[in-house]
Amino acid sequence: MKKITIAIDGFSSTGKSTLAKQLAKHLGYIYVDTGAMYRAITLFAMQNGYISKEFLDRDSLVNSLTSIKLHFEFNADLGFAEMYLNTENIEKEIRTIEVSSFVSKIAELSEVRAKLVEQQQEMGRNKAIVMDGRDIGTVVFPDAELKIFMTASPETRAQRRFDEMLAKGDSVTYEEVLANVQERDYIDTHRDDSPLVMAADAIEIDNSFLTREEQFKVVLELTEEITSA
What b/e readout covers 51-90, taking b as 16+ CB neighbours within 10 angstroms? Predict the structure, then answer.
């Protein structure tokens, strides 16, 4: 079977990463969570006082980009690669509601996007990769052989995210999560640089009423049609 590039885009909390991990594991492909990369930059900005609810010190963050080193390391116990920021494992820290509340604002910055897109394109140079994010099929890999665009209602996505965070022991309300989902949707779809849009040749999947297994089966069948052609 030929090796291909699989681009999975969509709104926040649609299960993009879950699906991408399933596909990559089944196919023996590399999996890249681009959202984790933007979250890592966001955490760096928070740690250095470059962003808060009141302000964003864009110049200081942009000037610091050359000192930010990101990489993934595979965790055999978890079965997927974790995000590292300057040698520190930050996988847990980047999944908080605080980081979620700022990440779309950081992702709006053209300089940040340029730095990460360059890294992402290099990662996928040899294909055999599954990458999820907001602009994979439109900007990072416009020639990807398979493009998936995932969506679900804001309420469904907020409930999933809320349940996930409660299971991790986070103290958060459903209303906070829903507000965050809606705010991120607006910012992601209205930013000037690489807004979230469905590529013309992408296949849309509304998983509001699909189980993980049903969703995986649908996309795996699409993948096999292409790789076996």
Answer: beeeebebeebeeeeeebebebeeeeeeebbbbbbeeeeb
> What amino acid is encoded at 86 in this protein?
N
Cα–Cα distance, 22 to 133 (Å, whole number): 15
Residues 78-83 have a mean pLDDT of 84
φ, ψ at 172 (rounded to 5°): -155, 155
Q: Is 200 helix (H, G, I), strand (E, B) or coil?
A: coil
Bridging pattern class, strands 80-85 and 70-75? antiparallel
* % of the chain beyond a pLDDT of 70: 100
Contacts 24+ apart (CB under 8 A), 76-80: 79/21, 79/25, 80/21, 80/31
Six token digits for residue 130: 């599954």
Cβ distance 197 to 142 under 8 Å? Answer: no
Q: Is 181 exposed, middle or buried (0-12, 13-18, 19+ CB in 10 A)?
A: buried
DSSP 97-150: HHHHHHHHHHHT-HHHHHHHHHHHHHHTTT--EEEEESSIIIII-TT-SEEEEE
How far is residue 193's CA from residue 224's CA, in Å, rounded to a whole number? 33
| Angle at 228 (CA atoms; ends 222, 229), nearest 5 degrees | 90
Task: Write down the mean pLDDT value for the chain.
Answer: 94
Compute the distance between CA of residue 35 and CA of residue 48 in angstroms, rounded to an integer.
20
Q: Which amino acid is at 219?
A: V
